């Protein structure tokens, strides 16, 4: 589409040549050949979804023009045909936000037509779209964490914990923008929520006879959905290790995919590691026996994700026919039990399940319904104040630092307010409070009141679920539709904009690839920058020892500016390439994996 939109005659002439070469007349009633997203016809289209191909009818019309325009120039016709034939493949290999500029232009024209009374393409967001956006922002935060902390290790320390730790990015709340560990806890709460919402909706609708079918399908699809993209991504990493110096280790020798002596040994090593990663019976107790995949160390979270998913499905099945009060209490006991025993990751899945049920029991729009108009206004203002305060508090909890938390201002008191399992261990204390922050963050977003705003086009592509398994609107979501049109919860707006929704779409691919891209691209900027920094520091130290303090200070100031400039440039290049790879991988592997999973399920459940 990129070539087609940039050079329309090329695409049209090449298409016409295709008709001439094949000598097959096209039926005017034949369907357009579209791939993935068509802005006009695809239900899930959005401004970043490109139109990839031209219709056969248009190609046939252009072929008639081609006969009269380039007749006798066979070499030109061949070149045009090759360009047009490659345009779709070239466009597919581009990140979708590049060829989508054409669609965005069309969208702006459509908005102008709507303002003049013409038709509009606006579609409402999904009621749970903010969770997709939140997941995408969390995935981006994990990337910022792993990239930024390699350049600035001091960010791990709490603000004010030592005399030298007074950077603005170490401050509470701001730290949440680069706290990767906090983002992982957010992942787990969201997963518990979205994995349980559909089944809970079925239960609350009184259709308990459908619960078993819903859960059976969810359990069957879950390992395929999680592990198929992992098999492909780690397989690509294994192939790349066969080329010299593709992966560059961290400063001090960080872990990179191990290169084996032969290709055969590389394959068997990759297969062994993959089987170990997928093994559903591997013992997981808290984070005491973590193991990351040799080809992607960040995959340690996926076995926890799978274990938590099975826990959610088990609890839903166990309490599917019980009174809902018994179910709520039972899940709460399970969550508390795991929290005090140190398995806080599984507590987060239970918390997500509880929040999903809470959205059905206590919808946000229920507040103030039985009050007078003035009372409803007061309740509306109070709800805004409470949710904003809870949102800020959750960001404070999510900002608990990795190092020196108990001695950091703002965290000294709460560091002692933890269960016995966590007391005295900085890492465990951090995990406890960022888990609390993840839960309170989702609560704040759930109950944020609506404000007037025009909803933009977006899709609800959930990482955990395929399109047929997307969570149905809860009672909370349905009741919020009684609000005036063009209204949307205030805090949810942070995660329902186009960029956050795009991040939500590619979040799984971004998570799978950010570590590899950091080693392939980012380290090529970090190593020379770090060497220049150390050389400059050594030179400044020599000047200071010789009595040239002013010159030493000038050298330090210069190398500091150069280091930050190199970090900024490396960040831009590394991020662009990461988005490119994640975007293509999402369309080439992640989305087809959903369809493959559904196909496998239909085949497995086929009845004779």
From TrEMBL:
Pfam families: Acyl_transf_3. The chain crosses the membrane at residues 133-152, 182-204, 224-243, 299-318, 325-340, 346-367, 379-398, 429-447, 563-582. The keyword Transferase applies. InterPro entries: Acyl_transf_3_dom (IPR002656), Acyltransferase_3 (IPR050879). Coiled coil: none annotated. The keyword Transmembrane helix applies. Keywords: Acyltransferase, Membrane, Transferase, Transmembrane, Transmembrane helix. GO terms for molecular function: acyltransferase activity, transferring groups other than amino-acyl groups. Residues 129-533 form the Acyltransferase domain. It comes from the Eukaryota. Residues 465-485 are annotated as: Disordered. PANTHER family: ACETYLTRANSFERASE (PTHR23028), PUTATIVE (AFU_ORTHOLOGUE AFUA_4G08520)-RELATED (PTHR23028:SF134). This is Acyltransferase family-domain-containing protein. The lineage of its organism: Eukaryota, Fungi, Dikarya, Ascomycota, Pezizomycotina.
